[in-house]
Amino acid sequence: MQEWLNRLGPLLGLLLVIGVFSLLMDTPARFLSPNNLRIVLSQTVIVAIGAIGMTMIIISGGIDLAVGSTIALTGVITALGINDGLAPSVALLSGILVGGLVGLVNGLVITRLRVVPFIATLGMLGVARGVAKWMANEQTVNMRGTWLNELLVMFPNPPWLLVAPGVWITIVLAILAAVVLRNTVFGRRVFALGSNEAAARACGIATDRLKIWIYALAGLLFGLAGVMQMSRLRQGDPTVAAGSELDIIAAVVIGGGSLNGGEGSILGSMIGALIMAFLRNGCQQVGWPNYIQEIIIGAIIVIAVAIDRWRSAHA
Amino acid sequence: MRKLLLIFLILTLATSCVKNNGPSSKKKFTIAVIPKGTTHEFWKSIHAGSNKAAQELTAQGTAIEVIWKGPLREDDREQQIQVVEGFAAQGVSGIVLAPLDNRALVRPVDDAQRAGVPTVIIDSGLESNDIVSFVATDNRKGGTLAADRMGQLLNGKGKVLVLRYAEGSASTTEREEGFLSQIKQKFPGIELVSTDQYAGATRDTAKRASENLLNRFSDVVQGIFTPNESSTAGMLLALQDIGKAGKISFVGFDASQTFIDALNADQLHGIVVQNPFNMGYLGVRTMVDSLMGKPVEKKIDTGVMLVTKDNMSSPEVQALLHPPLDQYLK
Would you tell me which residues 51-110 of chain A have a C-beta closer than 8 angstroms to some C-beta of chain B? Predict the structure, then answer.
């Protein structure tokens, strides 16, 4: 029962946001239309894929601040790959692998050099961004049109897909990640690592190797998010997604993740990402200025965590 | 005695002139050109134009070195301030600056002036009296041209949406105001349904804002105006995604290959094009003129014109759309 309430918390928040905006809107039918849903889902994909990786990292008690830079870097790499005549699937793969490589380096710095994750990834935030600008020659990288550009279109081809292919990819990945986290040895170890690292090590878990795996795996997801970003813009932009790491962390936290580790769920993080996308979308359509959106999103992050604390104190 | 004194005076003057002239004709002026960002095609043209000025002047015997450096993101004021401060400290001969903000950059520019480094402002205004000259597009006129085109496209009646660029950017605000006031004055039959939303600094933010706005207004509006390259690009992507490109009269600002293709495909019905190449060129020329002690105008217009599918192939427009970038950028 208690567990179900915990699950429902973020979902109720999402419904509340949608409900409030429907009331505020003079054309609620349009706000609730399938087309608007398509827009919001497409806009959520990048943050959502990032949040899948971030959820694993945060459950394990870590943090990754380099996501935004990784997204920019992998988007640029993929665009450059296409320009160099690689097949789109190979370019896609190279983008994802570079993301994984960035994560692997993060994991190695954290475990081998004993640098705390906050600092290690803060460093990577600068390094990856710089490399992205360097590779892109300080310009945006325009590339020829390929099927990669169709990943996040509003009206997918074939139409029976209903939503963009990228949205389906995100849903499949989210389900996979949720199953892995809940039902596999790897997943249980991630929770154990985040709940109590010393105890996990005492139980015979190779915590260092586990951490490297977690960061590398999350990196692959961030790489995919970078490809999605490139697909949305139809160019590799080395300056894109600055600050999106905070959106991604916020999605995880709104969804019940704890920065102390040991807590968090993929479903919650996905809902957290949707809440933020709906807030942006709604504020814009009601005609509120940007600063109101920023204030509201900021307040909601704090309120969500406060409710979470209150609930666990009374559990 | 008086004659002797006069001769002496003339002699010293002459030798001092020689002394001054000697090194100064060989002296190298270093001009720092600081754009708002480096990722838009617009800035590449400015860069090419300033290089052209440098090459011409160098060929005429005044050695000019242009240093090109900007913040990579168009909305990073802090980074641009640091770039200006860096050049002032480094002691370049002069700065040609496209300020990201009409106030935030006042202090560093005034400080540079005090440190003996004068500044020519290009592209976007700066609320300072300590500048050599303001070399820019008449942005208000650009907005007015866009409004005239919109009125013509809609036959003077319909609903129009304006997606603004970003808070605090003087040049785009003037375009927006020029557009709005011309619509209000000249086309009372046109209703402005949304004029208070901002596209933000990048294509990504512009696309997101456009999608959200179009969901609400795409069945209502007959016309859309966007005031710069990134907002026009974002809106165009959003229109293409929902299959409305070409169905709504769309007037944008600035030029890029994507926009030219869209004009040909009737997805974009007019772009107001500035002359960034000329802006970069005149920016550096004005700076050098001033450094050499020539009088310069306080305000220099670099020209703006409306480009449509009809006039696109005229040589005048072709020169504007395809500035000789390759020739001057290596």
Answer: none
